[in-house]
């Protein structure tokens, strides 16, 4: 073997244990600690002529989630999800303890043990995402289609497509809430419109229709009408009723 071949072989062997980044499959995930277990999606030949073998699971891997100040976006990572694992250039054991610089103490470099997982990789077997909202920011449940969308045109949409239910905040500030058969529309500087075949105000148990409300009460309490009398023969006008009519109901139902 030439010297150059020997050096090549030595470098290659050394690089076998220098890890940078590999896709991996999640085996376990703890949403409280954001740590879990992953298996790299890479098989490796341990013997020159042997069959490629899966790498061992990597335990206690920190997962990266969008997080800053008091805010965090936590996604429920599931077994089987594909993630990207990157490998820290120094051992994580002592340097991920308190957010302060620490002596890593261990000599491991770019080791499998020091993986950090980043969720979000999609393998080809997962097919495609819906084509709509390609220009918008979207938070989508791929199974039931429920979504929150910040649209490029300034509209905000929350939708449950199975129920044809949605909340829309239009770029001009108009708000439309749709839950068939009901629609609520709030127009900035304009009317608030409620469309419903069963509109109840004041509570679920509303059952009295009050189409006129105050107008009807005003008329009832103030009305007069002519009358005649036979004894002594004469006519006149009644005074208004001596007792007030009931107040309009605070709980109403229109049907
Ligand atoms: Fe009367």
Verbal overview:
The chain is mainly beta. It has three domains: 3-123, OB fold (Dihydrolipoamide Acetyltransferase, E2P); 137-195; 212-230 and 237-247, no CATH class. The protein has two helices and 20 strands. The chain has helices at residues 3-15, 214-222, and strands at 21-30, 35-40, 43-45, 52-54, 58-62, 67-68, 71-72, 82-87, 115-119, 137-140, 147-150, 156-160, 165-169, 175-179, 182-186, 192-195, 199-201, 226-229, 234-237, 252-254. A seven-stranded antiparallel sheet has the order 10-11-12-13-14-15-16, with no helix packed on it. A hairpin with a 5-residue loop joins strand 13 (165-169) and strand 14. The longest helix has 13 residues, at 3-15. The radius of gyration is 36 Å and the shape is rod-shaped. It starts with a helix and ends with a strand. The model has no long low-confidence stretch (mean pLDDT 91). Bound molecules: fe (ii) ion. The site of fe (ii) ion (FE2) has 2 residues, from loops.
